[in-house]
Every structure is written in structure tokens, then in C-alpha cells.
Write a structure and sequence with these properties.
single chain; 3 helices; 128 residues; globular; 60s Ribosomal Protein L30, Chain: A; alpha+beta
């Protein structure tokens, strides 16, 4: 059985029925699951930039819970539902990660949540 102390859970119902964790800590490595950009009220803003800002804030909180932060980001995977969002997403990523420079893969795809325009996954390290 997997050691659940190396997992971070949010309590979202999907974690149980879909069998995943918000994040997995593997030694010094942290892998954060794909994160959408709901606001504090649980709704998705209309703007792709606002969705991404919210998603990054959520990832940041998860990394802090795991003993790290965004400055330790090593790899980003960004999923957008429309190529027209590329510039708005790039502007936000450029502002947040300009001094960090993780690797980045961006894909245009479907996201199975109505209204979701962007989803981000992050892998980071924990300071030694």
C-alpha cells in the first residue's frame, strides 16, 4: 500500500472517486495535479488570465503545504482549450515565472469541466 503521508489531499470528491491526490511528494520532488482556476467562491471566471491566476495561486498554496514554493518550479504543463488564449496565458506565465524559468509544455485540448479554459500542472523541488 502507498504511504499516504507523502500525498496532499484537498478533500474534493473527485480525489476519491477518480483515485488521485492534489500532490505527491517524492523525496525532494513535488508533483502537483492539474489545477483549474476557480475563484474563492468555486466558480470559474470568464477570463482565461483570471483562471490561470487562480490556478497558480492554488498551486502555490499546495507547494507551500509541501514545504516548497513557486520559485522551486522545474516543469509546467499548461493545457488550454483554444489557441486564441495563447497570448493571454503567456503574459501571465511570463510575469509569474520570468525569474524562475521552468520548462514549459503547452497543449491545446479539451478540459472536461464546463467553462474551464486553462489547467496547469507543476513539478517542483523542495529545498535541501
Amino acid at each position: 500500500m502507498t504511504d499516504m503521508k507523502d500525498r496532499i489531499f484537498t478533500g474534493a470528491p473527485a480525489e476519491d472517486f477518480a483515485g488521485f491526490s492534489k500532490a505527491v511528494i517524492d523525496g525532494r520532488h513535488i508533483h502537483v495535479s492539474g489545477t483549474l482556476g476557480q475563484g474563492a467562491d468555486g466558480t470559474l471566471p470568464e477570463s482565461v488570465a483570471e483562471q490561470l491566476e487562480n490556478a497558480i495561486a492554488s498551486v502555490s498554496a499546495t507547494l507551500e503545504q509541501a514545504g516548497s514554493n513557486l520559485t522551486q518550479a522545474k516543469q509546467l504543463r499548461v493545457y488550454i482549450t483554444d489557441g486564441a488564449y495563447l497570448k493571454d496565458v503567456a503574459v501571465v506565465l511570463g510575469r509569474v515565472f520570468a525569474d524562475i524559468r521552468p520548462t514549459n509544455t503547452m497543449l491545446i485540448c479539451q478540459i472536461p469541466t464546463p467553462g474551464a479554459k486553462v489547467e496547469i500542472e507543476v513539478s517542483a523541488s523542495r529545498p535541501a
